[in-house]
Design brief:
The protein has 284 residues and is an alpha+beta fold. It has 3 domains: 46 residues, no CATH class; 68 residues; 112 residues. The chain is built from 11 helices and 10 strands. It has a 4-stranded antiparallel beta sheet, with helices on one face. A hairpin with a 5-residue loop joins strand 2 and strand 3. The longest helix is centred in the last third of the chain and has 22 residues.
Length: 284
């Protein structure tokens, strides 16, 4: 294997671009760690004929509850859990670890493997339709304790980096409507992986379901579009859900001011503490 030290100044490189799928199925290669020098390490992985070289100082990730939801949802649609874990390179025993951060490459592989085994071209949309608040972990609990839908989604956009940093979530509002935006990270878009479309569709469908769970009634969007000619086209730079402002003012049935204060404190601590300290505390 070629030494990757030459890519050190850039932090990211693609080879075999653009991404494509080999006839008759997928070929996966597990992640390999390569020592460049005493202080720098690089990860190389192959996803649909794309090779990534990502610096460890700022890796993208998705936390385990998100990956667990994708895997379990795919198993309900005919996939084999053990085969999926082998393809992705994660242990079945790690699926219950809510603190586990799944690296970007393996998160992409999760969608590719699951879509391949289920043969469901709309897997992300279908999984989003059955998403629950637990997929966001502590952030989901905090959303449930907010006073109304608007503050719940404002909370999600503020703290979502605890669950994943692969998608940037934004929120804008005026007197009539609230726009929720979903934007994949630029490096992810460059891969042209099918994981982008599935993940975005799961996020958007999941948002609609969250509004139903929080209100225990139908409360979906009245407009859905992307920034490309008003049509949802994937991969797109940004996709949006537009909801009536009157809907977003609806109270959340599980609202608790004391619970909100406690959860915000826990979320802040979770964000600030180094991973090593959180791991030691959990072990004890």
């Amino acid at each position: 294997m070629t030494k990757t030290g030459q890519f050190a100044p850039f932090g990211f490189c693609l080879s075999g671009y653009p991404a494509c799928h080999p006839p008759g199925g997928y070929t996966y290669h597990p992640p390999v760690l390569i020592t460049v020098d005493k202080e720098n390490y690089w990860r190389t992985n192959r996803i649909s004929h794309v090779t990534y070289y990502c610096a460890f100082d700022n890796p993208m990730f998705a936390h385990m509850p998100i990956i667990q939801g994708i895997l379990y949802g795919s198993v309900q649609r005919g996939a084999q859990l053990s085969d999926l874990c082998d393809c992705i390179g994660i242990s079945v025993n790690d699926l219950g670890d809510s603190e586990f951060k799944v690296p970007f490459e393996q998160a992409c592989l999760t969608w590719e493997c699951c879509a391949h085994q289920t043969k469901d071209n709309l897997l992300g949309l279908h999984l989003g339709e059955t998403s629950t608040m637990s997929v966001l972990g502590l952030v989901g609990n905090l959303m449930q304790s907010c006073p109304d839908l608007l503050s719940a989604f404002e909370t999600m956009t503020h703290y979502i980096d605890l669950a994943t940093d692969m998608i940037h979530f934004g929120i804008k509002q005026n007197a009539r409507e609230v726009t929720l935006s979903y934007k994949p990270q630029t490096l992810w878009l460059k891969t042209k992986s099918i994981s982008i479309r599935h993940s975005m569709e799961q996020s958007m469908a999941g948002t609609c379901m969250f509004s139903v769970y929080l209100r225990a009634k139908e409360s979906g969007p009245y407009k859905r579009f992307s920034t490309i000619n008003g049509v949802v086209t994937w991969p797109s730079t940004t996709a949006c859900l537009v909801l009536r402002f009157s809907l977003m003012e609806l109270a959340i049935t599980s609202y608790s001011k004391k619970k909100t204060c406690l959860l915000r404190y826990l979320v802040t601590i979770n964000r600030c503490l180094p991973s090593s300290i959180k791991y030691c505390a959990k072990r004890k």
